[in-house]
Amino acid sequence: MTDVRDFLEGKLQEARKERAPLEASAIELRRNLAATDARIKLLLKTEADLERALQALGKRERMKTEITIKDAILAVLADAPHGLTSSELVATLNEKYFDGALERTSMSPQFTRLKNKDRKIRSKGDRYVLA
């Protein structure tokens, strides 16, 4: 029975001896992986920040069109004899003139002036038409 025990203890020592450098290597690999993961996360955040900055610049550049918001509203409504809802109006303005950069909050003051002060448009139910 001691032969079996000696054999098994020898195998145990061999396994432990073989495992030790592998564990050290694994620790180093995990450390490198963690550093790489941290670098990737930082680069992803940097990329997202830069993309947002580029989008903001692009919106400002696209907004520099030849037509004013007020003129664009009048032109779009001139092509819509049955009128447009405010959502349809923003979508059409963005499609035709502002490449998606016009926000409702930018349009609202011009729209209010055209409706109340200039009286060039009026509401017809939930739609807006030329006056």
In N-to-C order, the SSE pattern is HHHHEE
Instruction: Decide which structural class fits the backbone.
Output: mainly alpha
N- and C-termini, Cα separation: 108 Å
CA-based shape: rod-shaped
* Tally of helical runs: 4
Mean pLDDT over the full residue set: 87
List unreliable stretches of 5+ residues: none
Placed side by side, the strands forming the largest sheet appear as 1-2
Number of strands: 2
| Rg, alpha carbons | 34 Å
User: How many domains in all?
Assistant: 2
Give a quick account of the main beta sheet: strands, pairing sense, barrel closure: 2 strands, antiparallel
β-strand amount:
5-15%
Which range best describes the helical content: under 10%, 10-25%, 25-40%, 40-55%, 55-70% or over 70%?
over 70%
Notable characteristics:
131 residues, mainly alpha, Arc Repressor Mutant, subunit A, 2 domains, two-stranded antiparallel ribbon, 2 strands
Protein topology:
Elements (H helix, E strand, L loop, with lengths): L1 H62 L5 H10 L7 H13 L5 H14 L3 E4 L2 E4 L1
Helix pairs in contact: 2-3
Explain this structure:
- With 131 residues, the protein is mostly helical.
- It folds into 2 domains: 1-64; 69-130, Arc Repressor Mutant, subunit A, CATH 1.10.10.
- The chain is built from 4 helices and 2 strands.
- It has helices spanning 2-63, 69-78, 86-98, 104-117, and strands at residues 121-124, 127-130.
- It has a two-stranded antiparallel ribbon.
- Strand 1 and strand 2 (127-130) form a beta hairpin.
- Helix 2 crosses helix 3 (86-98).
- The radius of gyration is 34 Å and the shape is rod-shaped.
- The N and C termini lie far apart (108 Å).
